[in-house]
Amino acid sequence: MHEKPYRSVVKSISWRTLGTLDTIIISYFVTGNLVMAASIGSIEVITKMVLYYFHERAWNRSSFGRVKPPANDYQI
Of 37, 47, 52, 60, which sits most exposed with the smallest number of CB within 10 A? Predict the structure, then answer.
C-alpha cells in the first residue's frame, strides 16, 4: 500500500499549522513584537510546507525501513 499525493498535502498543512504556531510563539518571546512574530510565521509556513511536501514524496518512494508482506501460500 502506498500513500496518495493528497495525503501528503493534508499532512503538510496540519503539521505546518502546528509548527507555525510554535514559530510565532517563539518569535514573540524573542522579539517581544507580535507583528514581527506573525511576519516570521507567515513566511516560514509557505516555505516549510513546500519543503515538507517534497520531502514526504521522496520518502514515499523509498523502501528504506519498509517490510514486504509475506507471500500468501494459500491460493484459492
Answer: 47
pTM for the model stands at 0.58
32 pLDDT above the threshold of 90: yes
Instruction: Provide DSSP, 37-62.
Output: HHHHHHHHHHHHHHHHHHHHHHHHH-
Contact 37, 27 (CB under 8 A): yes
Cα separation, 76 vs 66, whole angstroms? 28
* pLDDT single digits (tens) 4-22: 888 888 887 888 889 899 9
- 9 close to 49: Cβ distance less than 8 angstroms: no
